[in-house]
Write a structure and sequence with these properties.
CATH class: Mainly Beta
Largest sheet: 7 strands, antiparallel
CATH topology: Pnp Oxidase, Chain A
Number of helices: 5
Strand content: 25-35%
Structural class: alpha+beta
Strand order of the largest sheet: 2-1-5-6-7-4-3
CATH superfamily: Electron Transport, Fmn-binding Protein, Chain A
CATH architecture: Roll
Helix content: 25-40%
Order of helices and strands: HEEEEHEEHHEH
Number of domains: 1
Length: 146
């Protein structure tokens, strides 16, 4: 299980598939970093990805190339927007992983929208989440609310 998260974190780009209000897929290729047993990505706070995740946290993730072409299997996951501290941690992790390219991109972003204009997204694979939290409770077939 951690192997899948490690493999995705080691890939250069992550293909993040989010869903709009009509259920249509919207795909984005993003830089990815490891965040413990989860993955982290960074995006503008008012980007399409962030807006769709605010409404619908279920996503698909998988490795891809720089053009957004999938290079592996897509896995179901759950995403949530991070607080400013986690977002700052992701910025540092991006610089550590991607070097000068990330430093330039982050500097341009900070100049254009400021620190509050970006947000980190924490992504947890569904199978890992179910292992940690357990399956959702379902009432037995004989259960009656009255």
């Amino acid at each position: 299980m951690h192997d899948r998260t490690d493999q995705l974190a080691d890939s250069r780009y992550l293909l993040l598939t989010t869903f709009d209000e009509h259920g249509n897929r919207q795909e984005s290729q993003l830089w990815v970093v490891q965040d413990g047993t989860a993955l982290g990505v960074w995006t503008p706070a008012h980007s399409g990805e962030a807006e769709r995740i605010r409404r619908h946290p279920r996503v698909l993730i998988g490795p891809c190339d720089a053009h957004g072409r999938p290079t592996g299997r897509r896995l179901p996951a759950r995403a949530r927007l991070c607080d400013p501290d986690a977002t700052a941690r992701y910025r540092t992790s991006l610089i550590n992983k991607y070097g000068l390219t990330a430093l330039i991109a982050l500097a341009r972003s900070r100049f254009r929208v400021g620190l509050a204009g970006t947000v980190g997204i924490r992504i947890t694979l569904n199978e890992l989440e179910q292992r940690l939290v357990g399956p959702e409770w379902q009432p037995p077939g004989t259960y009656c609310v009255n």
